Every structure is written in structure tokens, then in C-alpha cells.
Amino acid sequence: MMAEQQEARYQDHVASAVPDSERRGWWATFATFSGWVVWPGMVAFGVTLLQGQGFWPSLAASIIGGIVLGGISTALGVIAMKYGFNTYIIGDRTFGNGGGRVIGACLAITLMGWFGVSTGASGQAFAALFPGIPYWVFAALLSAIFGGTAVVGFSLIRRLATYTIIPVCLLLVAATIYAIVANPGKDILGGSAPVVDHAISFALAVGLVITNWIMGCTTTGDILRYSKNVRNVAISQFVTFAVVFGVLNWIGVPFAIATGTFDMMGKLVTLGSLAWTIVAMIIIVFGTWTTADTQCWIASLGLTYAIGRPNLRWVIALIITAIGFVATLYIWNYIFIWVDFIGTLLPPIPAIILIEYYAIQKRSYGPLAPPVNAMAYVSWALAAALGLYTGVVLKLGIGAINSLIITAILYYILRRFVPQKSQTT
Question: In 3, 152, 309, 336, which residue has its Cα 20 to 30 A from 268's Cα atom?
Fold first, then answer.
């Protein structure tokens, strides 16, 4: 009996609904979700999304983008909370029998890569601090630490994020304030985000901010199924995206205006102060830890559901950790090609889920998964291809946003005019 309980503990309800006894308040889901969202690289990455924007416009673009993301995430999270389902069970209810396995495999592969990116970035930071030690040593050590949390599962991920997310956020804010105070001659309010490539419009900046996390919104349900009610879902996502994400995605702008660089961690280390070096290391370790462990955990849920072996989730998390470590060594050579591809491949998934649940099913799933929903796959394939072509080849708009909008329109039309079979076992 005890062995069965231990086995169930590490499954994290891969193939079943989360029971009421394991539901949490808004703070738990907020901390877990924010721990996933906040990572050291978002400071520099945020500047590239807001390049050329002034102090106030860049803040507005980041917060507006965050509000849109929070709205999408809340809409998806409400579905997960209502039924206690993860993304893959919802995938079966949307794409039909077997749909959750397809989605699980796609997301697992994607998140393995992101685990490699997150862990690799931290490994590079430590390799720069300690040049006598090879990069791969840090990459291996950090992969083991971050992946180890994912092996245990949601309970440990939630606890770690609960205790670290606020200190990490406060240290990022403190570093920015210090940079501003230490450079009194800089016109912070009148300055603009550095132009990495070329200045962009306000609308494009908002779109890029949304694109930054629309892929993450796809797996919102994996965390928000642990919420107690709709209010908790809405509060946790508003605070996560409109406040935490909106501000910290932007915070690199005033830092860059003050210091002339958006590499916050590198700048803190080069100050020559032991205290700021320690601050940088704390941000790098714990900021990345709560991001990478969630990536590995969600990947393990998806791959476990895909192969249909819930009792092996923790083993699959170990395998993903090893694959993620290998990714830290090679993915940097293909990072931009990879981001462009997954940036148009994944956004159709949440669009199809939302249209199916709110517009077609009228906010209520049937008791059984339907047969294969061909229209979902047709919409997914066409929208992903058109998004990639218009955004990457033709340079019209943003590929991820294009595929999201195309999917929503195309899928709604197809579902309204093409009859579907009745539900089966």
C-alpha cells in the first residue's frame, strides 16, 4: 500500500483530474507560475523586444502585453481548474482521442530544448565567473539540480518557488535602482531602450512581448489545475503577467539606459563588489532553477502522457534532464531557427482549445473524449505553415501572432460548417 502511495505521489495526476484535497489558493499558483516566468535572461531579452521605445512607452508595451497574456492564460486556466485536467487530457477533449499524446510529445520536445537554453545560460554565466572550470561541468551540475526538482514533482517545485520568487524579484529591482543611483547623469525618464537591430513601433513591441510567452501559455493548465476556483486563477495570472512579468520584462530598459548595457548579470559581476557578485549568483541560480525545473516537469508530464505510462513520470523526468544537458552543449548553434519554428508551431494549440471550449462546446465538455477531430489538425497545420511563411519569409507581422489569429478564425469556420461525429468511448 505504501509503495502504491509513493508511486502515485510522483505521478502528479498525469492521466487523472487533480482532486479537491490538493487544490491550492492563488498564492501557490502565482508563486509557481511566476517562478517559471521570471528568469535572469528575461531582463536582456525584454530589452530586445522593446528596443527603441522610450521609458514610459516601453513600460506600457510590456504591461499591455502582459495583460493580454494574462487574459489568455486565465481563459485556459479556468478550463483546467474546472475539470482538474492537465493540458494533455484537455488535448484529448479538443483534438479527439490521441490528441493529448500528440500535444504531449510536441510540448515535451519543445520544453526539453528550453530546459537546455535556461540551464545552458546559467552554465555560461558560471563559466565566465570561474574560467578555469569547463562550461560542461557547470551545465551538468545545474542540469542535475534543476532536473532533480522536476523528478520529485509539483509539490517541491511549488515550495521552492514560494520561498524564492519574491527575493529574486526584489534583487532584480534593487540592481536596477542601484544602477540608476550610481549613474546620476543619465536621463532615465527621457532615454530609450537600446536599439539592438532597428527601432520598432509601439504596436510591434506589444506584439513581441505577447510572442515572448504565448508558447508558455499553451501549458498553463498543468499548473492552474491545482487552483481552487476561478477567482484564484484570475488573480494569480493578473499578478503574474500584468505585474511581475510586465515590470520585470521591462526593467532592463532603465538599467540599460543607466549603464549602457542590458547584460545585468555581467554588469553586476564586473562592478568588482563581492556583494553584487553574490546577488548576481543568487539571481542566476534561483531565477533559473524555478524556470528550468518547471520546464522539465511539464515536459515529463507531456511525454509520460504520450507514452501512456503514468507510473514512469519520474523516470521520464530523469531522461529529460539528461537530454536537456546534451541540449545545453549544442542548441545554441540553432537557437534562432528553433525559436522561429516552435514560435509558429505551438500558438495554434491554445487557440484551438479556447475556440472549441468557449465557442463550440459552450463551456462544457462531454463525459467522453470525441473521436479524432480532423478539423483541429487541419487548422493547426495550415495556421502554423501560414504563420511561419508570413512572419519569417514575408516579414509580415509576427509569425506567432499570425498563426494564433489564423487558427482561431479558420478553426471556428471549419467547426461551424463541417459536421463532427458524436462522442464515443
Answer: 336
**Domain tally, the chain:** 1
Determine the Cα–Cα distance for residues 284 and 276; give it in Å rounded to an integer: 12
Average pLDDT over residues 320-349: 80
**pLDDT for the residue numbered 310:** 94
Query: Could you tell me which residues come within 8 angstroms of residue 363 by beta carbon, excluding any fewer than 6 positions away?
Result: 357
- Please name every residue paired with 192 in a beta bridge, in sequence order, or none if there are none: 54
Is 298 inside any structural domain?
A: yes
162 is a domain residue? yes
Q: Is residue 6 part of a domain?
A: yes
Sign of the torsion angle spanned by Cα atoms 24, 173, 241, 210 = negative
pLDDT tens-digit readout, 282-328: 999 999 999 999 999 999 999 999 999 999 999 999 999 999 999 88
Whole-angstrom distance, CA of residue 287 vs CA of residue 297: 16
Q: Is 143 helix (H, G, I), strand (E, B) or coil?
A: helix
Residue 286 CA: distances (Å) to CA of 146, 166, 214, 217: 10, 11, 23, 22
- The SS3 assignment for 194 reads coil
Query: What would the mean pLDDT of 230-255 be, rounded to a whole number?
Result: 93
The alpha carbon dihedral of 398, 399, 400, 401 has a sign of positive
Picking from 344, 332, 420, 328, the residue whose alpha carbon sits closest to that of residue 382 is: 344
Query: Per-residue pLDDT tens for 124-148?
Result: 889 988 889 999 999 999 999 999 9
Over the stretch 368-390, which tens digit does the pLDDT of each residue have? 778 899 999 999 999 999 988 88
247 contacts: CB under 8 Å, gap ≥ 6? 59, 62, 63
With beta carbons less than 8 A apart as the criterion, state whether 362 and 355 touch.
no
Q: Yes or no: say if 222 and 78 are a contact pair by the CB < 8 Å rule.
A: no
Q: Give the pLDDT confidence score for residue 40 in this predicted structure.
A: 86
Q: Using the structure block, give the residue that is written with the C-alpha cell 509520460.
A: 304
Residue 373 · residue 420 · CB < 8 Å = yes
Handedness of CA 104, 110, 115, 118 (dihedral sign): negative
How far apart, in whole angstroms, are the C-alpha atoms of residue 193 and residue 164? Answer: 29
21: domain CATH number is 1.10.4160.10
Query: What is the domain range of residue 41?
Result: 2-332
Upper half-sphere CA count for residue 198 (Cβ side, 13 Å): 2
- Answer whether 195's CB lies under 8 Å from 205's CB: no
In a domain, 121, yes or no: yes
Q: How is residue 423 written as a grid cell?
A: 462522442
